[in-house]
Hints:
Elements: H1 2-13, E1 22-28, E2 44-50, E3 59-65, E4 75-82, H2 88-94, E5 98-99
Amino acid sequence: xxxxxxxxxxxxxxxxxxxxxxxxxxxxxxxxxxxxxxxxxxxxxxxxxxxxxxxxxxxxxxxxxxxxxxxxxxxxxxxxxxxxxxxxxxxxxxxxxxxxxx
Length: 102
């Protein structure tokens, strides 16, 4: 889909890059702190980078779904989110996910 096309275009723009080594990099543009069960996620900037050339951080691979029904058909991508507290296992057990629709 669209995100694969982004990876392909970035690879073509950089001589010597291989599509197999290009990964999607995500950055949350404005950090939000909230205790609510549901809150609106700030904008997320998605770009591409060569695997291994970016700083590795502890992140939670948060699934992004098109609809609230969590299934493979509605799954779009995993977004790497920095963790301010706890580890990735904690957030997985909590069932944390991003939804594009209510």
